[in-house]
Amino acid sequence: MLKEFQEFISRGNVMDLAVGVIIGAAFGKIVDSLVNDIIMPIVGAIFGGLDFNNYFFGLSSAVTATSLAEAKKQGAVFAYGSFITVVINFIILAWIIFLMVKAVNNVRRRLEKQKPAEAPAAPPADVALLTEIRDLLAKK
Hints:
mainly alpha, 2 strands, two-stranded antiparallel ribbon
């Protein structure tokens, strides 16, 4: 069982997946910072200078705080600003991934166009012999 597990882990695609997950998590943090630290303050300034993450309303009368963190301590809240931030985060991440895939596809297409056309493989010896016999009989 340990040997099977070692074979499974040492396969190339499992390692590639692990690297992809790690890089994806780091990339997600970069995009999250881009959204929270650069884009959302601009959006917040456009919509009245408030922090967009703090757009919420309390689901009970006990919630009186003005910040989301404090309001969550007081009770249940409907944090639509946080949701909108996450949706914008997803859209930016999806757009960046789309651009990356598009660039890779363009490179692949260019490389395929640059490949010289391969000459057809020589026919097997028996087929070549039969073709030669056919040609000789056709000349008679």
